[in-house]
Design brief:
heterotrimer; A alpha+beta; B alpha/beta; C alpha+beta; B: alpha/beta; Amidase signature (AS) enzymes; three-stranded mixed beta sheet; 15 helices; 37% helix; globular; C: alpha+beta; 3 domains; ten-stranded mixed beta sheet; three-stranded antiparallel beta sheet; 18 strands
Chain lengths: 95, 486, 477
């Protein structure tokens, strides 16, 4: 299989990474060589094999329902790009 | 072969009040000031903070409250959030990010009284095998500064090799501790997945990432592992296990040890000099009482394709939080919200990171999930099953850490696939969640270090360290440091 | 003229009534200053990790048991990836392939006809933050206090055929989730938000029509209005020869219309995959059984029992089980007085009217169930007439004390002393000779006038039955 520059633009859009046509062209070639490498696993017969999502066969530990956090918004917002009145500011969101 | 700068030796000097933690820290800070401009192993050095922490360690020692390593300064990979320290993960995206909290690993070292010498350079978001993708410039290999140190924990490996720090922390997603350890001639261990908390360690591929120690010797690594490991309620994948002493078996003889040699790791693509050094190491272990058995890890040849589906998939999602809203880089000029996202991420991430985000977004996208992501997860199980079978007939698996020694800066940076192949032997352990380590076993004709890899069964770190320590008692590869660095 | 059938399925987001968030130890309390309840995990600082709140899982188990659903003993959290400023991680942790709850059903009544609505699934997920669009120099402000609040998204099968059925189902669901205590049900604060998938098809057609999803309806009235508008719009569009395109729409309460938010073409590619930071969730049988044992009696069972034990009508039983607080109130009052039907009348009549007027919830009633029961008992034992009882009720409402104390203090006891009553009757007869004459000449109405005079002279305290009896006896002498 082979990605087209349009495919590259589409996934760059999904990932919110600005990509010019020239960049998409260059990236396309690199991605295709990587997907050629990846393609070697396609031929493997995996019928009946359960997917492995985690390294350990253990179950989720549960936390007691208790409030343990305190207000740290001043410290957190000291490193934010744009804040006002305790809010993070972003360009106008249109719904 | 315990040197004067081994962790146990330094700890003994501190305990005997032959030196203070402040003096020791200053010695290393001076060496960093002298050598780092040539090596670029550190992104952040803050002598004032280091000396404050050292003074606190001295107070603990004076009060008789010292632990085994209290006062010994070490360096931390810049992937660990460190309260009040710049924590960049090697990226422009976090070039201004002063972490407001400590990673669990950092908390453990602070609680044990080990001052931080600074934050080490790394491939951007731990994505790379040469440390050339860092926004803060490439790290140079102390054995020859025209060569790469390996990656992604290249700064950690280089600073330890150049003796700018007695030891360092690293992280390993596909070989990022072991491969740079091999290329820089030091010892590094990636523990069983779940032994070291990932809380506060900036995520690359969550199901593979694991932190571990990097130091000259296996004994040093054992002592560091004693500090680093332990249950953390803030990490759902952290394992609840009894605390163990990883140094307990160091001195056991190797009589009867069964060493598995996977035939796939000695096949085509392996550099001859590396193969010869590994063969010599096998011979040395046999002298120490080990026996060998050929094993097969038939599916390990699929490890790279599987890894380059799973790791980018997880990474593409893990790195979505870098959007210029709450911290880190935000593009200076933008119009709409979408424009801000797209420009911030295009400018804040480097080429390799963007490449992997795109691969990840693609393999998870509609219509491709089953063919890529699910198939990769199934083969991941086949790879893990191979190891389970192998450990029925051997105690530890041995092979080369990397197919070759260090390569020249820039040599592979234009060819991602060539670069990815460097992790051929290290990735399988990450996919299975098994512990793996690299230790020095010789030098090539150019004087560059060669690494030997051990992969153990789950939770067999003490056994692996025992094997490595016995090997290091019989050899001195690990004790050699690059000359000409003053 | 073609006949159309409406098809509706609902997706309801219920905020779970936990103290802390689903993956962090931040408070979920409503109304705090912006971002003061947004921890490192909630704002997605680099390196932070989620740990699942046991309380949220328990809420989901309760719900699954209450609707007779299958509880997936192993369920899995997935990541739903999309960019939005109120979604700090760039993904929402949700459950796609293996939700905690599958199946189950709720029975609702519309115009006296019962209908069972089946549920598809219910899954746990985290809420997003809020975007505040007031003008910050043309910017939007982001408050992440709500980010990470646990949600149970409850998805029905497309089995409703009218807005009335949809509202009945939504109300029954609202009653149930508040009943079992997993949601506070506060719709103004967004604790219970409804999305409606609406389509129409010609009657008799097997396939569904193309649906449009109306997002975020936060009142039952808006749900009804939005569906009614949407159905009319879809039928008109089709009858005019148009086509329905799959889309997400918003309801504007001011215009009463729905408007397009995004078309299918803009639909996200969410790139779901299992969250590697969270392990599969396992539900132990012991845990499930303990939750089952602690579940309160459910509304349907209680309705049947109220009819059986207290003799109330099916309609009254349904009204009285409108909320657990109301049902508990009724039952306490009924048991205190031993008069189920009378208690039902008072709870649904006098009390409901007073609460309604004062805009109070039953849980905030100034008159306790025990007090109302005591009041009804005093009616039953003849101490109070209905009229006097209403005066005592007013006293209770004002906080004037307990029932007997109010009767005593205000002198509201019915006259039980026949000597005193006879004296009053004698005085009334003497003063109303004309009426006496009229009665004796056969005018029955004159008797009622005399009863009224006696009651008036007793200031309402005479027992009307006793007045009748004594008056008759005296007039026949």
């Amino acid at each position: 299989m082979s990605l087209t520059p349009d495919d590259v633009k589409r996934i760059a859009r999904l990932a919110r990474i600005e990509t010019s046509d020239a960049e998409a062209q260059a990236t396309q070639a690199q991605l295709n060589s990587i997907f050629d490498l990846i393609a070697t696993m396609q031929a493997v017969d995996t019928a009946g094999i359960a997917p492995m999502a985690h390294a350990q066969e253990v179950y989720q530990r549960l936390r007691d329902d208790a409030v343990t956090e305190t207000d740290r918004h001043a410290a957190f917002q000291a490193i934010a790009p744009a804040v006002e009145n305790g809010l993070y500011l972003v360009p106008k969101v249109i719904e | 072969m315990s040197s004067e700068t081994s962790l146990s030796a330094l700890a003994a000097q501190l305990a005997a009040r032959q030196i203070s933690s402040r003096e020791l820290a200053q010695t290393y800070l001076d060496r960093i000031a002298a050598l780092n401009p040539a090596i670029n192993a550190f992104i952040t050095v803050d002598p004032e903070k280091t000396l404050l922490e050292a003074a606190a360690a001295d107070a603990l020692i004076a009060a008789g409250l010292a632990g085994p390593l209290t006062g010994v300064p070490i360096a931390h990979k810049d992937i660990f959030c460190t309260d009040g320290w710049l924590t960049t993960c090697g990226s422009k995206m976090l070039h201004n990010f002063v972490a407001p909290y400590d990673a669990h690993v950092i908390q453990r070292f602070k609680a044990a009284g080990l001052p931080s010498l600074g934050k080490t350079n790394m491939d951007e978001f731990a994505m790379g095998s040469s440390n050339e993708t860092s926004h803060f410039g490439a790290v140079k290999n102390p054995w020859n500064t025209a060569y790469v140190p390996g990656g992604s924990s290249g700064g950690a490996a280089a600073c330890v090799a150049a003796r700018m720090a007695p030891a360092a922390t690293g992280t390993d997603t596909g070989g990022s501790i072991r491969q740079p350890a091999a290329l820089c001639g030091i010892t590094g261990l990636k523990p069983t997945y779940g032994l070291v908390s990932r809380y506060g360690m900036i995520a690359f591929a969550s199901s593979l990432d694991q932190a571990g120690p990097m130091a000259p010797s296996a004994e040093d690594c054992a002592l560091l592992l004693n500090v680093m490991t332990g249950f953390d309620p803030n990490d759902s994948t952290s394992l609840e296990r009894d605390k163990e002493d990883y140094a307990r078996d160091l001195d056991k003889p190797l009589t009867g040890l069964r060493v598995g040699l996977p035939k796939e790791f000695f096949a085509e693509g392996l550099n001859n000099e590396v193969a010869a050094a590994v063969d010599a190491a096998v011979a040395e272990l046999k002298k120490l009482g080990a026996t060998t058995v050929e094993i097969s890890l038939a599916n390990s040849k699929l490890a790279i394709p599987v890894y380059y589906v799973l790791a980018p998939a997880e990474a593409s999602s893990n790195l979505s939080r870098f959007d210029g809203v709450r911290y880190g880089y935000r593009a200076p000029d933008y119009g709409s919200l979408d424009d801000m996202y797209c420009k911030t991420r295009a400018q804040g991430f480097g080429a390799e990171v963007k490449r992997r985000i795109l691969i990840g977004a693609y393999v998870l996208s509609h219509g491709y999930y089953d063919a890529y992501y699910l198939q990769a997860q199934k083969i991941r199980r086949l790879i893990a099953n191979d190891f389970s079978e192998a450990f029925k007939v051997c105690d530890v698996i041995l092979g080369p850490t990397a197919p070759g020694t260090a390569f020249r800066l820039g040599e592979k940076s234009d060819d991602p696939v060539e670069m990815y192949l460097n992790d051929l032997y290290t990735i399988p352990a990450n996919l299975a969640g098994l512990p793996g380590m690299s230790l020095p076993c010789g030098f090539d004709s150019q004087g560059l270090p060669i690494g030997l890899q051990l992969v153990g069964n789950y939770f067999s770190e003490a056994k692996m360290l025992n094997v490595a320590h016995q090997y290091q008692r019989a050899t001195d590869w690990h004790a050699r440091a690059p000359e000409g660095l003053k | 003229m073609m006949k159309w059938e409406t098809v509706i399925g609902l997706e309801v987001h219920t905020q779970l009534a936990t103290k802390s968030k689903i993956f962090s130890g931040s408070s979920t309390a409503f109304g705090a200053a912006p971002n003061t309840q947004a921890s490192a995990v909630d704002i997605a600082l680099p390196g932070v990790l989620p740990v699942l709140n046991k309380g949220a899982v328990e809420c989901a188990i309760k719900f699954g048991l209450a609707i007779g659903a299958n509880l997936n003993r192993i369920n899995v959290f997935d990541r739903k990836n999309y960019f939005y400023p109120d979604l700090p991680k760039g993904y929402q942790i949700s459950q796609l392939a293996k939700p905690i709850v599958e199946g189950g059903a709720l029975t609702v009544a519309v115009d006296g006809v019962e209908k069972t609505i089946h549920l598809t699934r219910a899954h746990m997920e985290e809420d997003a933050g809020k975007s505040l669009h007031e003008d910050f120099h043309g910017m939007t402000g982001i408050d992440l206090n709500r980010a990470g609040t646990p949600l149970l998204e409850i998805v029905s099968e497309p089995e409703m055929r009218s807005s009335a059925e949809a509202v009945a189902y939504a109300r029954a669901l609202h009653t149930l989730v508040t009943w079992i205590g997993i949601c506070d049900g506060n719709m103004q604060e967004g604790s219970f938000r409804v999305d409606a998938n609406v389509s129409v098809r010609p009657v008799g057609q097997a396939e569904f029509g193309t649906r449009r999803e109306i997002k975020n309806l936060n009142s039952f009235r808006f749900l009804q209005q939005a569906i009614d508008y949407e159905v009319r719009w879809q039928i008109e569009t089709l009858e005019d020869g148009g086509r329905i395109e799959q889309a997400t729409v918003l309801f504007d309460p001011d215009t009463g219309e729905t408007r397009m938010m995004r078309s299918k073409e803009d639909a996200h590619d969410y790139r779901y995959f299992p969250d590697p930071d969270l392990l599969p969730v396992k539900l132990d049988e012991d845990w499930i059984e303990a939750v089952r044992a602690a579940l309160p009696e459910l509304p349907a069972a209680m309705q049947a029992r109220f009819q059986r034990d207290y003799g109330v009508s099916p309609y009254d039983a349904a009204v009285l089980t409108g909320s657990r607080a109301l049902a508990d109130y009724f039952e306490t009052a009924a048991q205190a007085c031993g008069q189920g039907k009378l208690a039902a009348n008072w709870v649904m009549g006098e009390l409901a009217a007073a609460l309604n007027k004062a805009e109070l919830d039953i849980s905030a009633s100034p008159v306790s169930a025990a007090q109302l029961g005591a009041l009804i008992a005093r009616i039953q034992d003849g101490t109070l007439s209905g009229k006097l009882a209403r005066q005592v009720f007013e006293g209770l409402w004002e906080g004037a004390g307990e029932v007997d104390a109010i009767i005593e203090a205000r002198g509201l006891k019915q006259m039980s002393d026949s000597g005193e009553l006879e004296k009053i009757i004698d005085e009334v007869l003497a003063a109303n000779q004309k009426s006496v004459e009229e009665f004796r000449s056969g005018k029955e109405k004159a008797f009622n006038a005399l009863v009224g005079q006696v009651m008036k002279a007793s200031r309402g305290k005479a027992n009307p039955a006793q007045v009748n009896e004594l008056l008759k006896a005296k007039l026949q002498n």
